[in-house]
Every structure is written in C-alpha cells, then in structure tokens.
Design a protein that fits this description.
By secondary structure, the chain is α+β, with helices and mostly antiparallel strands. The chain contains 11 helices and 32 strands. The longest helix is centred in the middle third of the chain and has 17 residues.
Length: about 650
C-alpha cells in the first residue's frame, strides 16, 4: 500500500499523520514536510489575446495553492474549462471560493498530496470559462495560450495581476519556473497543445484520455460524429457569453458538417508539432475509450516516438476513466515519483523502469521496456469470399481477381448488431473471419483498411470493425462507469483542510463475460477518397479506392479465437448517414486490412492466418455486450 494512502475506509480526517522515513538505500522521494496552511491566492495572467473583442487583452484566472516556504517550488498545473460548468474527477468537483473570492476548494487531490511535499499547484481557468476573461475556442489559440501564458508568467515572461481588471502587478518569485501539466480529457488536451509549442519551463506533461487532433474528436476521415465545437464552447461558457457569438460563428464556419479537413482543424492538430516537444510525456488512455478514441493516443505517441521524446504509457481496459479510479494506489505512487524525477531532478530510477504498462484482463497488468506498438509490423490480411454470400474468410492470401462482396447501408444498425451471429449472413454487412488461431496474436498500434468500393448512389459512408470472436471476461466498459464501480468507502490522499477534502470514494472494476470483443474500428466518407480536404463526386457503379484508419489497439487474440473483419456502411452508434444510403459492392482483390502485428508476418503465420479461409465463423455468441446509450457524452463535450 502506498505510503501516501493515509487513511482508508474513513470519514474526512484532520491533517494526515507524518509518513515514515524511507528505508535506508531506497530511492529518494519527496516527503510531506510542509504542514502549515498553504498560501491560497488567485493571479490573473494576461494572455496577450483579445478573444471577446472588447479592446483589451484577456486575463485568465490562475488559482494557486503553495507551501509557506522561502525556497522556490516547482508547479503542477491543471488547465481546464470545467471548473465551474461540469466538474473534475469521478465526483465532479468544482472550484469553490470564500466570500471575498479567495480560492478554497481545489478539485482533485493534487494540492492535498503534493503541496505538503514541496510542490505548488496551479489550476487555470481557460479563457471564456469560470472567472477567466475572453472566449472559449475549443482547442484553438485562446485555449492553448491560456495555459502557456501562465507558464510564461511563472518564468518571468508574462504579466500577472492581483485583480481581473486593473490591480497591481504580481510576480512569481516563489516558483522555480519548472512546470508539470496534468489533466484528463480536455485538460490533458491542453497539456498536449502547450507541449507542442515548445514553451520553455514545461518539463513534463501527463495527458490522460487526451485529444491530439480535434478533427479526430468530431470527425473521422470525412464523416461526422454528429457534434460540433461551438456546442462545447457554449457548454464550458456556462450557457454562452453573448460577447463570444462571433467566436462560435467562426467555429461553425470552420467545421463543415461534410467532414472535410479545414484550416480550423489544422490549427487544432498538435501531431505535426511533436518535433517542438521538449517535455517528457506520461500518457494514459483507455483502450475502450469511445469518447476520446484511441487514435488520439496512437498518432500522438507515434509522433513523439519519431522525435525520441522521453515517454511512458499506461493503457487500461476502461473507457474514458482516470487512473485514480482504476489503479489508484499504483497511480499516486507512480505519479509522485514521475514528478519528483521531472520537476525536482531526483534520481529515483523511474526513467529506467518499464515504459509501458498494459491491462490484459481486469486488474491484471503486463509491463514491457517500451511499448510494442513502436515495433509491431504492419501486416496485410485479405478478405476472401466464402461459401455463403456475406460471409468469407480472413487470411494472408489475397482474394482472386474476380472476388466480390456487397452490403446495403442500413443506418439503423451499428457495429454491435453487425458483430452478433457471425455464422449468419446479413445484408447490412460483409463479415470475414479467420480460422481459429493456433497461437496467441498480439495487435499493438494503429492499423488501416484499403477498400475498392462501388456505390449504387452518389454518396456512401463506410465502416470497418475488427472483432475478436471467443469467450472472455473483460472490464464492462460499456456499462455506466465504463469499467469501474464507485463504492461507499473512502481513501484519503494527502491532507484535508477546511473546504478542501483529500478523501475520495473508492472504486472497483466491473466485469462482463462476453463472447466477442470489438478490438478496433474506423469510419470514412468514400467521397473523400482523393483528399480529406475536398470531397469528390461519386459516380454510381464506378469503383473508388480509399484507405482509412483503424483505431489504435493493444489486444491479444487468444489461440482458439477467430479474428473477424466487418465492412459495412453507417455505424449508427457513431457516425451520421450519407444523403443517399445504398448498396456498396466490394472488389475483394482490391481490399485489404493492414494490422500492427507484434512479430509481423511470421507471428501471423504461426497463428494460422496463412490458412485457407473457411467461409464462416463457427462461433455464435450466447451474449453480446450491451449497446451503450451514449458515446460522446451526448455529442456535446469531453470530460
């Protein structure tokens, strides 16, 4: 049990008891030596931008909790738009203030745990949210600059004040200027964006379930998920600020419903700027996150790896869940040592530990020196026809030149309906399954599918779904808690003070017994077959070639299971339908899937994927995962 888990199964405690000194020879670790009431204050930092167009530059509120010491301290920062509208963490904590407007309640455990250990915590209201001036622009310059300006202020390069308007200038002489940014979802996205600026003083980021490209949050290779950034802007502005109407209009104009990539989306794509990242990165993502989908992690990780950015990763079986709620003791311990190393310069060995930790079964984790997604080999598999129309095989051998398959788009169906009854043909999808695998097969990384498709109408949306057919017990990521259950007991992580509780309700894994698991999926608009920036007319009956991405995965298909590939039209659980759904014919000789297989073609052959196709999947699931009610939090925001 972590030494910071101070009181378990208790009501709110008073100050925590001092921790015991580490044993002789143990790696160094910061200790909770600052027991006095922290300094709590707000500084309004000038961003240099005038988002609301009132003729004055906007100031964002930075709420600070710091130790009472004459020695400068490093900073742990969480910049968020959710401190007043939606809350942070599993218990939806909001910022609170006393009757004079001074900060009292700091969401999450960071101030409770780290301030006694010699860190300062800074929680930043993004522009247009809570007490900050300006307008929310959902991933744009205003968002990123909100946090970057605070780092600049901490390093003496920007101005801060003791009031929202006017006031006296305030310096940050109490700070070393070394900053670690952390946050889940939108907050982690800001950390990614600030790191991509290369700002001096940012030493590390800890993005949890974070976005790397806002296009891929709202769109996918030309199709829309049915939501738009202006709706999120209005949400985080607590219903909207009238002075920000022009900003939301620009968001609407720059995010066309047809799914094309535009300059607005390019501005909100941090992946091309990974070369600027000088901070280390400790990324966390749920492999079953259907909100901030795993392609967000995969493309960011690949870009960081290409530039040799120091990095570490945890991949869980959960959905959109913070590691504090699925691996709490280990998380706080690891995060503590990570910040000690990155911000205090402690030689505690964390940089020599396994860089990747992947949850293989509920609460069962596998560590490796580096994530295998970096070394997995793209390996081509081919759908081939079977004895029954609509059911075929999946093998390393290409299909004959005249092989064909087809489906009729039914927007009322989705991937969960398609994946069921794999031994029965359905007009709404074409299903291709391997023979039962002889060996375990691990997929790690981001795959793609290439199709040659002929639509019967002038518009067509495509979906591809990768399925592991076979029984398993997994986290119930489609359930209410996305893989966790919140309990009535509490554990405490740091020191509780009046108005700022360090205790949080415990959680446990929820599990489901299933007979298939969806490993990855991808969606595209066939009209974007030539370019994601511009649709091209589709001529009914003509073949069109297109390659589109599959979500990043890390999954072991056990021996005895079958690997399935579904190709269909509108996935009603995620994407919008085309104007004229119709029949789509597939040229199987021109269709293949590229999968990131650990061990490449040799591992595929050992697993039996070079075997002749059987044509049908001889596994009928007795139960299927329950269809989720909501994927994108109503399509309006990411928390």
């Amino acid at each position: 049990m972590l030494c910071g888990a101070l009181l378990a199964l208790t009501a709110t405690p008073a100050l925590a008891a001092p921790e015991a000194a580490p044993p002789a020879g143990a790696p160094p670790r910061s200790q909770p030596v600052f027991a006095d009431e922290p300094v709590r204050e707000t500084v309004w930092v000038d961003t240099g931008l005038d988002g609301d167009g009132d003729g004055t530059t906007d100031r964002v509120a930075a709420d600070i909790a710091r130790p009472r010491t004459d020695s400068p301290t490093p900073v742990i920062m969480d910049a968020s738009p959710y401190y007043s509208c939606c809350g942070r963490g599993n218990e939806n904590e909001l910022k609170t203030y006393d009757d004079q407007g001074r900060p009292v309640g700091f969401p999450l455990f960071y101030d409770n745990y780290f301030v006694p250990r010699g860190y300062s915590t800074v929680l930043v209201d993004l522009a247009g949210t809570n007490r900050a001036q300006g307008c929310a622009d959902v991933g744009g310059a205003s968002d990123v600059t909100s946090a970057k300006a605070v780092i600049d202020w901490l390093n003496g390069r920007a101005k801060g004040y003791d009031a929202a308007t006017g006031g006296a200038e305030v310096g940050a002489g109490w700070s070393t200027g070394d900053v670690g940014m952390i946050g889940k979802s939108y907050d982690g996205t800001i950390a990614n964006g600030v790191a991509a600026t290369g700002v001096e003083g940012l030493r590390t980021i800890v993005p949890i379930g974070a976005i790397s490209s806002w296009y891929d949050y709202y769109r996918s290779d030309g199709v829309s998920f049915g939501a738009d950034p202006s709706g999120l802007a209005e949400t985080v502005e607590d219903g909207g600020r009238p002075e920000c109407a022009a900003v939301k209009q620009r968001l609407d104009e720059g995010a066309p419903a047809n799914g094309d990539v535009t300059p607005l989306w390019d501005e909100r794509n941090h992946v091309p700027d990974a070369a600027n990242v000088t901070a280390s990165v400790f990324a966390v993502h749920g492999l079953n996150d259907l909100n901030v989908k795993t392609v967000q992690f995969g493309q960011w990780w690949d870009a960081l790896a290409a530039h040799d950015v120091p990095r570490k990763v945890w991949l869980s079986q959960t959905g959109h869940v913070d590691p504090f709620d699925f691996r709490r003791a280990e998380w706080v311990d690891t995060l503590h040592r990570w910040f000690d190393h990155a911000l205090l310069g402690m030689d505690n060995g964390i940089d020599a530990e396994p860089a990747a930790s992947v949850e293989r079964a509920p609460d069962e984790w596998s560590d490796e020196p580096s994530w295998s997604g970096e070394t997995a080999t793209p390996t081509a598999l081919h759908p081939v026809p079977g004895e029954t129309d609509g059911l075929g095989g999946l093998t390393s051998t290409p299909a004959p030149a005249d092989a064909r398959a087809s489906f009729t788009d039914d927007p009322r169906q989705d991937e969960y309906a398609w994946a069921q009854q794999p031994d029965q043909a359905s007009p709404a999808r074409s299903l291709f399954t391997s023979a039962p695998l002889r060996d375990d097969l691990r997929l790690a990384g981001t795959g793609s599918i290439s199709v040659t498709a002929s639509p019967s109408t002038s518009s067509a949306h495509l979906s591809a779904v990768l399925v592991d057919y076979g029984p398993a017990t997994t986290r119930d990521h489609l359930g209410e808690g996305e893989g966790i259950r919140t309990l009535e007991t509490e554990s405490c992580w740091g020191e509780s003070r009046d108005g700022d509780d360090a205790c949080y309700r415990d959680t446990e894994a929820t599990t489901a017994d299933v007979d298939y698991r969806i490993v990855s999926r991808g969606w595209a608009d066939l009209a974007n077959h030539e370019s994601l920036e511009q649709e091209s007319p589709l001529t009914p009956g003509d073949p069109h070639e297109m390659t589109f991405r599959l979500a990043t995965a890390d999954h072991v298909v056990p021996a005895g299971h079958r690997l399935g590939l579904i190709i269909a039209g509108t996935d009603g659980a995620f994407i919008t339908a085309p104007d004229e759904p119709g029949r789509v014919d597939l040229d199987l000789a021109g269709t293949s899937v590229s999968l990131p297989i650990v061990g490449g073609s040799e591992a595929a052959a050992n697993a039996g994927l070079d075997a002749a196709a059987t044509g049908t999947a001889a596994v009928r699931p007795e139960r299927a995962p329950a269809r989720p009610e909501v994927h994108l939090n109503g399509g309006s925001f990411t928390r």
